[in-house]
Design brief:
25% strand; 7 helices; alpha/beta; Ubiquinone biosynthesis O-methyltransferase; Rossmann fold; SAM-dependent_MTases_sf; eight-stranded mixed β-sheet
Length: 240
């Protein structure tokens, strides 16, 4: 029996958001704001790892991608448009149903699965888990499951809030406190520092090849930065 990384209360919390997941002004509004920034990092990581050009419209053609904690498809759909054969998996069946509906309306052939990533078979050229590790029961077990799904020459991309007072202030006190993020979405005790996540990845046989922050500024909004104190992304590969 595969180890479980699912926390039922987390699945229920996010499943309740399925109805307006694709509404940029709904309960997932902050994810809609984050998504272009995250996609920028993912695209840069793809080009560096697979040797593609930023001018390529479909750099993932012929490659497989797995989006873990896919929600209703905010990342899975762009990955499909980049040419990948995409599988999305989420612990909340309500989100998977919403994802299937939206993909169908968008004319995208994406395989969506409700359940536990540890029970999936196969290996994928690209594995993504954005804003997920802070919601799982056991981060070390979860990262091992991601590593198990990664092809030998594959690329893993993760993102998560930083474990800093600044992140707690903006993410929980302000964003949740003012309703920009539904209350109860985050637990600061689950946040990981870049060093903690890097060590967890190393224990799973992976090496971090790039780390970038997602910062916020009044003039720039959310943007990629060298400042890792709010939120950050990592790209990792199998240790050589």
């Amino acid at each position: 029996m595969a180890e479980t990384s699912i926390r039922p209360e987390e699945a229920a919390h996010f499943g309740a958001m399925a109805g307006d997941w694709w509404d940029p002004k709904g309960s997932s509004a902050m994810l809609h704001r984050l998504n272009p920034v995250r996609l920028g990092f993912v695209r840069q990581a793809i080009d560096r790892h697979f040797g593609t050009s930023e001018r390529d419209l479909r750099p993932l053609t012929g490659k497989s991608a797995l989006d873990v904690g896919c929600g209703a498809g905010l990342l899975a759909e762009p990955l499909a448009r980049l040419g990948a054969a995409v599988t999305g998996i989420d612990a909340a069946p309500e989100l998977i149903e919403a994802a299937r509906t939206h993909a169908g309306e968008s004319g995208l052939a994406i395989r969506y699965v409700a359940g536990e990533v540890g029970r999936l078979d196969g290996a994928f050229d690209l594995v993504t888990a954005l804003e997920v590790v802070e919601h799982v029961a056991d981060p070390a077990s979860f990262v091992r499951q991601l590593a198990d799904r990664l092809a030998p020459d594959g690329l893993l991309v993760m993102s998560t809030p930083a474990r800093t007072p600044w992140s707690r202030l903006l993410t929980i006190t302000l964003a949740e406190g003012t309703g920009q993020i539904p209350r109860g979405t985050h637990d600061y005790d689950q946040f990981l520092s870049p060093d903690q996540l890097g060590e967890t990845l190393a224990q799973a046989g992976l090496t971090v090849v790039e780390t970038r922050g997602i910062a916020f500024g009044p003039g720039k909004g959310l943007h990629l930065s060298d400042d890792l104190s709010l939120n950050y992304l990592v790209a990792a590969v199998r240790a050589g």
